[in-house]
């Protein structure tokens, strides 16, 4: 089974969705969880599931490049096939990202390429969008700019605030992230040399669920 390493910074509900999928028989194991914050609740989720975890605090490093070098060394100690960012709230250096080309996925709470960056739910409401969602994408040096693998769409309701919208999006994240990781683990999903994701031997045009 494919070995998946999950990077987190917080609650880890996406981590939980991946743990639950693995427990239910998906063809991957969560081999380790790494957090940049020692108070991330996701660490408790890992402990409960018997998954090894580690904390690498960015405040112990002066330069971003130094942190990322230590992070790469830590990650490699777990020999993962795939690294997944699940609410990992750090920008990664291009050098680090290049080392994981085609082997690192992220989930972002918007319908990329719309609303890269932070505070997506608030910004979607401010822009009076009628729909919103989440995207799983391969990580490239461009922040939230890597090729999209799969998206989930939700309707924005008139009564929504950022919290209700975030909750509705998060529920869909918990569906599409395990799905994309499963595709990768099954050897069906890969990033082509020209940066286009392929599924089952054909170019993937970001399916929307
Ligand atoms: C998720 O909504 C994820 O998409 C988002 O943080 C949340 C983490 O929740 N990620 C980003 O905003 C990345 N820039 P979780 O810790 O419960 O999985």
From TrEMBL:
Q: Per UniProt, where does N(1)-(5-phospho-beta-D-ribosyl)glycinamide bind?
A: 12-14
Q: Where is the active site?
A: 108
Annotated GO molecular function terms are: phosphoribosylglycinamide formyltransferase activity
Q: Which Pfam families match?
A: Formyl_trans_N (PF00551)
Q: Which positions are annotated as binding (6R)-10-formyltetrahydrofolate?
A: 64, 89-92, 106
Q: Which GO terms describe its cellular component?
A: cytosol
Formyl transferase N-terminal domain boundaries: 3-181
Task: Cite the entry's keywords alphabetically.
Answer: Purine biosynthesis, Transferase
Keyword Cell membrane listed? The answer is no
Under the heading SUPFAM superfamilies, the entry gives: Formyltransferase (SSF53328)
E.C. number(s) listed in UniProt: 2.1.2.2
Query: Which biological pathway?
Result: Purine metabolism; IMP biosynthesis via de novo pathway; N(2)-formyl-N(1)-(5-phospho-D-ribosyl)glycinamide from N(1)-(5-phospho-D-ribosyl)glycinamide (10-formyl THF route): step 1/1
| Swiss-Prot/TrEMBL catalytic activity | N(1)-(5-phospho-beta-D-ribosyl)glycinamide + (6R)-10-formyltetrahydrofolate = N(2)-formyl-N(1)-(5-phospho-beta-D-ribosyl)glycinamide + (6S)-5,6,7,8-tetrahydrofolate + H(+)
Lineage, top-rank taxon, reads Bacteria
What's a BP term from Gene Ontology annotated to this protein? 'de novo' IMP biosynthetic process
What family does this belong to? Belongs to the GART family.
**HAMAP family, alphabetically?**
PurN (MF_01930)
Q: What does this protein do?
A: Catalyzes the transfer of a formyl group from 10-formyltetrahydrofolate to 5-phospho-ribosyl-glycinamide (GAR), producing 5-phospho-ribosyl-N-formylglycinamide (FGAR) and tetrahydrofolate.
Q: What is this protein called?
A: Phosphoribosylglycinamide formyltransferase
């Amino acid at each position: 089974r494919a070995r998946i390493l999950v990077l987190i910074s917080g609650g880890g509900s996406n981590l939980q969705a991946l743990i639950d999928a693995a427990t239910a028989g998906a063809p991957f194991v969560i081999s380790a969880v790494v957090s940049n914050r020692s108070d991330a609740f996701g660490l408790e989720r890992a402990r409960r599931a018997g998954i090894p975890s580690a904390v690498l605090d960015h405040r112990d490093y002066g330069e971003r490049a130094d942190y990322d070098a230590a992070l790469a060394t830590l990650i490699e100690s777990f020999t993962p096939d795939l690294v997944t960012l699940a609410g990992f709230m750090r920008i990664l250096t291009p050098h680090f990202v290049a080392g994981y080309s085609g082997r690192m996925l992220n989930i972002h709470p918007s319908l990329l390429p719309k609303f890269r960056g932070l505070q997506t739910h608030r910004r979607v409401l401010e822009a009076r969008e009628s729909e919103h969602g989440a995207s799983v994408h391969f990580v490239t040096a461009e922040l939230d700019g890597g090729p999209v693998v799969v998206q989930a769409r939700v309707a924005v309701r008139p009564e929504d605030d950022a919290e209700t919208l975030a909750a509705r999006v998060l529920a869909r994240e918990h569906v599409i992230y395990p799905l994309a990781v499963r595709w990768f683990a099954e050897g069906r999903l890969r990033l082509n040399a020209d940066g286009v994701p392929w599924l089952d031997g054909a170019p993937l045009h970001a399916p929307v669920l």
